[in-house]
Amino acid sequence: MSDVVASFASVVPFPRRAATRQAETAALLDAVGSAGSLDIVPRAFAARDAAAALHLMGFVNLDEIQPDGGTRRLSASDARAAPPFLTWRVSRAPGR
């Protein structure tokens, strides 16, 4: 019985990510709300996930900035499958 108790004592709890994800989403929404639009660099994975979630809910619009400087509006499904090497521009959705 003491072997079972000893094995449980070595378990390391993982931190909760839900609170962190909600804070990142709220911070991104506040930043876009105050600035009007915000560019997200390709390696900012947490910000891109938060932007994709807000886009899916209809709070923001996502545009992909092409290498030639043009933009392409992303649909909700495009946001998840977009290439990770292009910058995104996040802007407020009309009426929000």
Describe, in plain words, how this protein is organized in 3D.
- The protein is α+β, with helices and mostly antiparallel strands and 96 residues long.
- The protein has one domain (15-92).
- Helix content is 47%, strand content 19%.
- The chain contains four helices and four strands, in the order ααβαββαβ.
- The protein has helices spanning 2-9, 18-35, 45-57, 76-81; strands at residues 37-40, 60-65, 71-73, 88-92.
- It has a four-stranded antiparallel β-sheet, covered by helices on one side.
- Helix 2 (18-35) packs across helix 3.
Strand element count:
4
Give me the Rg, rounded: 19 Å
Number of separate structural domains: 1
Indicate the mean pLDDT.
82
Outline: globular
Major β-sheet, in short?
Answer: 4 strands, antiparallel
Number of helices, where a helix is a run of at least 4 consecutive DSSP H or I residues:
4
Question: Helix proportion of residues, in percent?
Answer: 40-55%
Order of helices and strands: HHEHEEHE
Which regions are unreliable across 5 or more consecutive residues at pLDDT < 50?
A: 2-8
End-to-end C-alpha gap: 59 Å
Indicate the topology.
Elements: H1 2-9, H2 18-35, E1 37-40, H3 45-57, E2 60-65, E3 71-73, H4 76-81, E4 88-92
Antiparallel strand pairs: 1-4, 2-3, 2-4
Helix pairs in contact: 2-3
